[in-house]
Specification:
By secondary structure, this protein is an alpha/beta fold. 39% of the residues lie in helices and 16% in strands. The strands form 2 sheets. The protein has a 7-stranded parallel sheet, sandwiched between helices. Strands 7-9 form a two-stranded antiparallel ribbon. Strand 2, helix 3 and strand 3 form a beta-alpha-beta unit. Bound molecules: iron/sulfur cluster.
Length: 312
């Protein structure tokens, strides 16, 4: 597939598969998270606010069907989207009993005729064989299915620093079980984690190229209101990356990624009211343009660093 950008954009992968504009509709199904309810930890990851890293587009009091119908109409008008993916986004969307998960996923699959499938976001330590078998049952030949894992980094020390309460080994176990069932995956990573060097971040990119999930979502660590990271920022114990540094890092990271991995996102989704720092993150289009310009300046594209690395 040829694409218009120096990397493989997820939107183009969707367009090639479905022949039209496809958008994800975010859902809040009222889940919680083992890193908040005390079963793994309390207080959550240092960057996670009370919405459970959601886009805040939904009201969890609404049924899944109502959330989908409301937002499909908005997206149809705003983005001229024609087909939609039901995206279980907020908190940990496999953290419940199997029967409840099945009821929610079934409802999403059948709520609207223009839904092409499911995307389910979760922690790697919150899946097991039964849950993965259930998720695999939603695979359709002409449909869409994706399990999104918050891996964040391959370095356990970094995971500890953000109070993740899970390890890279947890991710590798979940990845293997998911791959065995041929469930496509998107792996989330965060750039700018406290204590991480450029080499640490590139090691994460190289590991992803080795594992080769179908997609990667790249986030910048940012401080949201009412989070431990906000407190660290206010006390001067943590500083976010600058815009220029982030652009350089994103390009470096993408250069190290296998060119067949779709890039779902390269900017954060911190919402305007809740974002404390860095505020430049709100200039999403400017950041995207700068990434493209930087690739142009370098004369490189996704996978160039990866190919070089595999030759040595
Ligand atoms: S695992 Fe996800 S939902 Fe839970 S605290 Fe961390 S970011 Fe928030």
């Amino acid at each position: 597939m040829t694409n218009s950008k120096p990397y493989l954009p997820y939107s183009e992968v969707l367009k090639a598969k479905f022949g039209c504009k496809v958008y994800k509709v975010t859902l809040d199904a009222g889940f919680t998270c083992p890193n908040r309810d005390g079963s793994k930890g309390v207080g959550g990851c240092t960057f996670c606010d009370e919405t459970g890293s959601s886009s805040r587009a939904q009201n969890k009091k609404d049924s899944i069907t109502l959330q989908l119908h409301k937002n499909i109409e908005i997206m149809r008008k705003r983005f001229k989207a024609e087909k939609f993916i039901a995206y279980f986004q907020s908190y940990t969307n496999t953290y419940s009993r199997l029967e409840r998960l099945k009821r929610l996923y079934d409802e999403a699959m059948t709520a609207h005729p223009d839904i092409v499938g499911l995307s389910i976001s979760t922690r790697p330590d919150c899946v097991d064989e039964e849950k993965l078998d259930l998720i695999a049952s939603y695979r359709r030949p002409n449909g869409y299915l994706c399990l999104e894992y918050g891996m964040q980094t391959i370095h356990d020390e970094s995971l500890q620093r953000i109070n993740r309460c899970e390890t890279h080994a947890d991710f590798l176990t979940a990845f293997e079980l998911t791959r065995q069932r041929e469930i496509p995956m998107c792996v989330h990573v965060i750039l700018g984690l406290p204590g991480e060097t450029i080499d640490d971040m590139m090691a994460t990119a190289r590991k992803l190229s080795e594992l080769k999930p179908e997609g990667v979502k790249i986030h910048l660590l940012c401080a949201m209101k009412h989070t431990p990271l906000e407190q660290m920022f206010l006390r001067g114990e943590w500083e976010p990356l600058g815009q220029e540094t982030y652009v350089q890092l994103v390009c470096d990271f993408i250069e190290h990624l296998d060119p067949q991995i779709a890039i779902h996102r390269i900017t954060g989704n911190g919402h305007r009211e809740g974002l404390v720092a860095p505020r430049w993150l709100l200039k999403k289009h400017e950041v995207l343009n700068q990434v493209e310009l930087e690739f142009l300046k370098r004369g490189t594209r996704q996978g160039d660093g990866f190919k070089t690395a595999s030759l040595v």
